[in-house]
């Protein structure tokens, strides 16, 4: 199991955990909108690390982004497998063709 799949499984398990014992359970208990807000904040922090050219911090913030993306997906019952399947579908297709298909 990859670390991302492992993390997604942990996050899924935290849905039924006590919010006082788990950061993930606490965040999920606040609802999808709060999860989305946290994801947005972490994404901005990652962008700031890019803008500053702070490589070490970018690695740290990117990990936060991936974690909070998985929490946000879990909050809306979207699985990592679904997202990976979408990426697999796009593999080998041209990015320009994908853009054209979206109109
Ligand atoms: N990868 C992470 C992870 N990345 C970030 N975070 C938490 O996300 C929070 C976000 O940090 P911020 O500084 O933005 O937030 P904050 O200042 O703590 O909170 P506010 O500003 O929102 O009040 C931090 O408190 C981190 O602890 C994470 N919490 C958990 N995980 C993974 O999830 C697993 C389960 O964690 P628990 O649910 O806590 O058991 C862990 O073993 C990890 O593998």
From TrEMBL:
**Its Gene Ontology biological processes?**
L-histidine biosynthetic process
Quote a single Gene Ontology cellular component term: cytoplasm
- Note the HAMAP family from the entry: HisE (MF_01020)
Pfam families of this UniProt entry?
A: PRA-PH (PF01503)
Tell me where in or outside the cell this protein is found: Cytoplasm
> Could you say which protein family the record assigns here?
Belongs to the PRA-PH family.
EC no. given is 3.6.1.31
Q: Which domain of life is it from?
A: Bacteria
Q: Which reaction does it catalyse?
A: 1-(5-phospho-beta-D-ribosyl)-ATP + H2O = 1-(5-phospho-beta-D-ribosyl)-5'-AMP + diphosphate + H(+)
Name of the protein this chain belongs to: Phosphoribosyl-ATP pyrophosphatase
The record ties this protein, via InterPro entries, to: HisE (IPR008179), PRib-ATP_PPHydrolase-like (IPR021130)
Enzyme class per UniProt: hydrolase
Per UniProt, the keywords (alphabetical) are:
Amino-acid biosynthesis, ATP-binding, Cytoplasm, Histidine biosynthesis, Hydrolase, Nucleotide-binding
Annotated signal sequence range: none
Its annotated pathway reads:
Amino-acid biosynthesis; L-histidine biosynthesis; L-histidine from 5-phospho-alpha-D-ribose 1-diphosphate: step 2/9
NCBIfam families attached to this UniProt entry: histidine_hisI, PRK00400.1-3, PRK00400.1-5
Record keyword Nucleotide-binding present: yes
- Give this protein's Gene Ontology molecular function annotations: ATP binding; phosphoribosyl-ATP diphosphatase activity
Name the encoding gene, please.
hisE
């Amino acid at each position: 199991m990859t670390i991302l799949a492992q993390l997604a499984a942990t996050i899924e398990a935290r849905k039924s955990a006590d919010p006082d014992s788990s950061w993930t359970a606490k965040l999920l208990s606040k609802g999808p909108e709060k999860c989305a807000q946290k994801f947005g904040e972490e994404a901005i922090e990652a962008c700031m690390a890019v803008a500053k050219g702070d490589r070490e911090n970018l690695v740290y913030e990117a990990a936060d982004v991936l974690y909070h993306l998985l929490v946000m997906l879990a909050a809306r019952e979207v699985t990592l497998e679904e997202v990976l399947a979408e990426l697999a579908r796009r593999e080998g297709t041209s990015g320009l063709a994908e853009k054209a298909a979206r109109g």
